[in-house]
Amino acid sequence: MSSPTQWTAVTMKLIKGATSAQPTKVDDPSGFVDNDWYQVDLINPLDSNLVFVAGIAQHLSNEVFDTIFKWHQAALILDGEMVVQCRDNKSVYRAHEGDLFYWAPGLKIRMGGKFKAYFVKTPATWRWIKTPDGKKKRLNLFDIEGEIIYPGSPPEENRPELIKEAKTKPSYPPKMPLMKFIRNALNAMPVQLDDSTQMPTDGWQQIDLVNPRDTDIGMVVGIAKHPTNTMNPNISNFYYHQAALIIEGEMINYDMNTGDVYKAQVGDLFYWGPGHKMRIGGAFKAFFVKTPVPLRWINTGNGKVVLNMIELENETRYPPTQPDETPVNLIKHA
């Protein structure tokens, strides 16, 4: 097995039968979940260099527990009923198969119910290790014992009137809710894109259910549809992390880095990371999550067009300094 210093993140991973994966009991909840929680990470932190994690979670009782989110997370209900209550405004949501939650950092909820869900979150907040006694939490990245934390400087003064002013005056941009719930998310109808300069040219359809503004540009969640069996002529270069769960048809992935061809059906899960190059084919519909956000959609008089966050027109860029030398071989000393 490679040591951590030798590990490199994968650029593509396919998990057949992802939604049928059997979660493992979590034996040390440490306050994040309760004793009835089961989980399996399909795309684990090592796959994505600690940026992205996706898997299947299951809760086996109607007991409830409290959680505070310090990360962005999407949860698609696969089976049963997930009951979620916002602890601040007391709103209760009862989610069933095909319903979607998005939770933002800072949200405090109470959760329970017998359910199974597919989840994706960023960043990867903890690591797991399987022991003879079961699946245990190895390292909580928000609470590392003995971690050295440099203290911040104290304020010059305290003005309580500023708190009152913040409550009475509007802020810009407006603060988005910390939770978004979408009933029957998988039945949302993707729309034909009007801008073919940035996207596939063979009838690609898409709709963002949780858009960048919902997440403070933390992630984007939606439905994509490729209506034909043809192979798309464009090559996609990935500068971001993306998971795609197939919900209809068959997606064919042509890996342009290796020449490998993968075919995924309903319930299969793809992960693509930065550096991956591919073409896609097949008639399919997929539920996707990606981070960071590469594209934004804008309604104009000419229809729905895309703002490419990777290649902004006329973006100012500070030029790099050239190397001092470029020898043929690796240097032997400084």
Notes on the structure:
There is one protein chain. The chain is an all-beta fold. It has 2 domains: 19-140, Jelly Rolls; 187-308, Jelly Rolls (Sandwich). Helix content is 2%, strand content 44%. The protein is built from 1 helix and 24 strands. It has one helix at residues 161-168, and strands spanning 12-15, 24-25, 37-43, 53-68, 72-80, 82-86, 92-95, 100-103, 108-122, 126-131, 134-140, 179-182, 191-192, 205-210, 220-226, 236-237, 241-249, 251-255, 261-264, 269-272, 277-281, 284-291, 295-300, 303-308. The strands form 5 sheets. Strands 2, 3, 4, 5, 6, 7, 8, 9 and 12 form a 9-stranded antiparallel beta sheet that branches. A 7-stranded antiparallel beta sheet has the order 1-20-17-22-15-14-13, with no helix packed on it. Strand 10 (126-131) and strand 11 (134-140) form a beta hairpin. The longest helix is centred in the middle third of the chain and has 8 residues, at 161-168. The two termini are 31 Å apart. The model has no long low-confidence stretch (mean pLDDT 89).
Top-tier CATH class of the largest domain: Mainly Beta
Number of domains: 2
Main pleated-sheet profile:
9 strands, antiparallel
> How many runs of DSSP E, i.e. beta strands?
24
The helix/strand order is EEEEEEEEEEEHEEEEEEEEEEEEE
Output the CATH topology of the largest domain.
Jelly Rolls
Helical fraction: under 10%
Terminal Cα span = 31 Å
Low-confidence stretches: none
Strand content: 35-45%
- Using the CA coordinates, give the radius of gyration: 22 Å
Q: Looking at this structure, what is the CATH superfamily of the largest domain? A: Jelly Rolls
Mean pLDDT equals: 89
The secondary structure category is mainly beta
Number of helices: 1
Question: Shape from CA axes?
Answer: globular
